[in-house]
Amino acid sequence: MVGATTLAEWFPENKLKAPGMGGRSVFYRNLEERLDTRRAENITFHVRHNEPSPDSIDFSTLDFLGLTHSGMIRQPFLDELAAHPDFKLGAGGSRLLNGNNPYTDEAEREIAAFHGTETALLFHSGFEANVAIMLAVPRPGDAIIYDELVHASMHEGMQGSMALCKRSFKHNDVDNFREVLADVRNSQSQIKQGNSSVIIALESTYSMDGDVAPLQELVKVAEEVFPEGNAQFFVDEAHTTGVFGKQGRGLVHQVGMQDKIAIRMHTYGKALACTGAAVVCESPVRDTLINFARGFIYSTAPSFPMVAAIRAGYKLMMTNQTQPLQDRIQQLVKYFFRTLEANPIWEEANDEGILQVPNMQDWEDKAFVTHVIPFMTRQRYTAYLCWHLQLAGINCFPIDYPAVPRGMNRLRIVFHAHNNEEDIDKLVSATCEWAQEMLDIEEAGEKSKLPAAARQVIAGRRSQKSDGVR
Ligand SMILES: Cc1ncc(COP(=O)(O)O)c(C=O)c1O
């Protein structure tokens, strides 16, 4: 279990570095100065060993189906290796030179068939795939319209995109989407005349909010505003691959919109417990990526083990072995909502804004629930809640700016097939215990009083300082 001293290490108080660097090269000083802007706000990133300790409960990793946790991915992966004993480890070059092989081609055919599309193209990661799509697909006269909360990788790609205009719409807001579409149509004559396209970029389930894109409504609006068919959708299924749709085909499949979505991007680093991603699409899109996506052209092809792991993941999905895990996540999240609602603290904590769970609203009326659940509280309380839960043996992390907009930090709770009802009981009781503590502090008007977990972590920081640990 994580102790207060470890938490103090994971959440250090940041001291500014640049002011003490008088004698160093301007090169390093400038870098530290930029880092200091993050340090000043306590929002620096660190690469640490903060994987869940074996005795803590995992409400944090993106191993949604538990394929890593249970080791279920290992055997089919080893079977792939055993079935190809002469495999070459390295690809030997770009796909366009020596890096292609029948095994990778076959993997892509399998992926395309599974998702019910004409073709698929593998990438090293979802990030690269999104950048590639945004850079290569929109033509100079085209427009990109995107949900304001799409992933950083889409923004990265958009920055270099040739699209004529790039406009966001308010998150999951169908009315605002219609306004933006209409505005683009009216202001861009080539688009209005149907000579250029509009590419609409979304996530199926948003990675930090866990809410679902209203795909049917958005598609309906796009068809109304652009009856010529020049508005096409690109949906990032990073958080829904393996978790939604029949056998894990994704959200687009779950809601029966495969024929309406031109580009789907499936990643394999989360539910499928491997790495990499595939773009599933019709051949003009695939050929465009092969010819114009520089990250695809000028990069060494995926190695055999990477493709083998992906095929192992698909084998599990295709043989129905992951479907019970998907179903289990649904049961567990609903159990969580029921348990939280039944807790006597919940209502007051929610009313007072101490604990809010936006995607819990009307959950009983929804056809399905999602596995990413943000816990919202007052901004300065997010770390306190995280520390309280960590000290109670619950592994979870806060998500802060720049991963989410300023003022929108939250604790992201992720549910997995390997969680169980007892884990959820602990999560709810520890969360509500903390909420009660905060309610008491606020009610007593003790504004500067810290909750117990925060006091422990701060004491841990002090003891590290006196021991000379940074
Ligand atoms: C919505 C979304 N898209 C794309 C990515 C990038 O995928 P990958 O981890 O395969 O690079 C992520 C990863 O966090 C994501 O959350």
Automatic annotation (TrEMBL):
GO terms for molecular function: pyridoxal phosphate binding; transferase activity. It comes from the Eukaryota. The keyword Lipoprotein does not apply. The keyword RNA-binding does not apply. Its cofactor is pyridoxal 5'-phosphate. InterPro entries: Aminotransferase_I/II_large, AON_synthase_class-II, PyrdxlP-dep_Trfase, PyrdxlP-dep_Trfase_major, PyrdxlP-dep_Trfase_small. Residues 81-430 form the Aminotransferase class I/classII large domain. One of its GO terms (biological process) is biotin biosynthetic process. Keywords: Pyridoxal phosphate, Transferase. Belongs to the class-II pyridoxal-phosphate-dependent aminotransferase family. BioF subfamily. This is Aminotransferase class I/classII large domain-containing protein. It comes from Conoideocrella luteorostrata.
